[in-house]
Amino acid sequence: MGVFWGNWGVVSIVVLVANTDAAEGSINSPQDNLNLAGDGQFCDAAAQPCPGQRLHRSKGAGVRGAGEGEFDWAGQDEELAHDHVTKDGWDGNGYITFCPCMGNFGNQIEQYLGAIALAKVVNRTLILPPFYHVYHRARQLQNVPFTDLFQLGALRQFHRVIPVHDFLTILAPEHWPAGQRRGYAYPFGGECSLTQSKYFYKDLNPPVVFDDCVPCKLRFDVNFSADERAKGAIKNLWSNSFSPQSHPVLAFNGPIGIFPMIAGNRYLQKYLRWADTAYFAVAQVYISETFGKDIWVAIHLRNGEDWVKACKTDLSTLAYMMASPQCHEKKIGAVTKDLCLPSIPHMLELTLQVFQDVKAKHLFIATDKHPHLQEFRMLLHPLGVSVHHLNPDIPQVDLMILGQADFFIGTCTSSFTSFVKRERDANGKPSIFWGQEYKGFQ
Ligand SMILES: Nc1nc2c(ncn2[C@@H]2O[C@H](COP(=O)(O)OP(=O)(O)O)[C@@H](O)[C@H]2O)c(=O)[nH]1
Ligand SMILES: *[C@@H]1O[C@H](CO)[C@@H](O)[C@H](O)[C@H]1NC(C)=O
Ligand SMILES: *[C@@H]1O[C@H](CO)[C@@H](O)[C@H](O)[C@H]1NC(C)=O
Ligand SMILES: [Mg+2]
């Protein structure tokens, strides 16, 4: 069934953390192994498109996931991968879109997955909004198109989607003309305001101006693993309130999926496949040059100032915190300090247990702030294990790498970790979390 927004105490923590995320863009940790800093080859701050520069590689050339996931998307089905939308291709069942404008990348992806689930159930085409922002070493990238990071065709295996730019340039002029555009808002605090969306949609290309604002009271998410009857009830409620005839385009001013996302929708991650970009190539080259055919363990350390502050909350009163439902049941007292911000002794102890067990040759450390290289090297060099840290130009490269490790240790409360965990689950790769007793990777 749908889950209503509730538990305002927890929601307000999420908002607090999302706001402080803005300060964490600069990643100052030292580099190791591969020097990408200032390398204009991958992302020239002055040039477009960025970061989604395409590689012109031959069909099926070693794209991630080949033979691992449920489908091998490499170079398949050009029909699905490209837009052949014409102005006659209007979907009579209507469209839905949103602004993924809460929090950072991990949060935005969860909002995206919630939106994908809802679009599927209400059977409207999802207009794919750009990511609100993506951090880059040189500058913050605003409104990064979905297709700069992910494959269109993979998502189309699940549902009808269209990039917002195509929608606005091909379909909107005739079917959703200026002067008839309504924005939709969840009534936070009872107000229907388009301030936020005006800001967001005005930055689209072409920009969207709304003439009207419609409050939406259907404040719940779809649980994709729920039964068809429950999903049918949601569909009916939505179609009765917003028929495609009178509400052809539901353009929301904010996220339409809750955070943290509903567990039943996590598997939808398998339809998010990294696009074949220069960034993806950086990750692949790094992996093959650093690890070769050896077994390697990857860890995610979330420890920037915003995180340290968030984890100072009185955890004992919370049933869950931020992304923590990914690693435990929601119950009071379940969030411990080591789940949120693991201590160095705990991290070293768990890492040692893992290396004694899995006999890997390398450790890869991804972090928003402190990689603790010295500590991990002192621990692992005696075992003949080498320790690596990349500090890439954009955090997505770390995600690409973390997803492919043989073993992964993540931060339970972090949605950056959640991305990795969901992707690894989809590919049958094992993961564990800091702050939990080590019981092996089975
Ligand atoms: N490069 C890099 N950046 C990270 C890492 N962990 C966190 N970040 C940055 O910090 C942000 C954290 O925000 P978010 O993705 O919403 O995840 P959450 O705050 O941990 O739930 C990320 O989007 C990145 O910009 C990491 O391991 N590597
Ligand atoms: C969903 O929408 C598509 C496209 O408009 C349509 O072809 C299909 O019949 C719809 N499915 C249902 C179950 O209504
Ligand atoms: C989602 O649906 C499944 C199957 O009906 C159920 O087991 C699960 O508890 C639901 N989860 C949520 C968060 O509603
Ligand atoms: Mg965040």
UniProtKB/TrEMBL annotation:
Lineage, top-rank taxon, reads Eukaryota
Location in the cell: Endoplasmic reticulum
What's the EC number here?
A: 2.4.1.221
Q: Which Pfam families match?
A: O-FucT
Q: Where is the signal peptide?
A: 1-25
Which InterPro entries did the record assign? GDP-Fuc_O-FucTrfase (IPR019378), POFUT1 (IPR039922)
Q: Which Gene Ontology terms cover its molecular function?
A: peptide-O-fucosyltransferase activity
Q: Which CDD domains match?
A: O-FucT-1
The processes (GO biological process) annotated in the record are: fucose metabolic process; Notch signaling pathway; regulation of Notch signaling pathway
**Record's GO cellular component, any one?**
endoplasmic reticulum
Q: In which pathway does it act?
A: Protein modification; protein glycosylation
Alphabetically ordered keywords of this record: Carbohydrate metabolism, Disulfide bond, Endoplasmic reticulum, Fucose metabolism, Glycoprotein, Glycosyltransferase, Notch signaling pathway, Signal, Transferase
Task: Kindly state which reaction or reactions the protein catalyses.
Answer: L-seryl-[protein] + GDP-beta-L-fucose = 3-O-(alpha-L-fucosyl)-L-seryl-[protein] + GDP + H(+); L-threonyl-[protein] + GDP-beta-L-fucose = 3-O-(alpha-L-fucosyl)-L-threonyl-[protein] + GDP + H(+)
Give the family per the record.
Belongs to the glycosyltransferase 65 family.
Q: What is this protein called?
A: GDP-fucose protein O-fucosyltransferase 1
* Originating species: Acanthaster planci (Crown-of-thorns starfish)
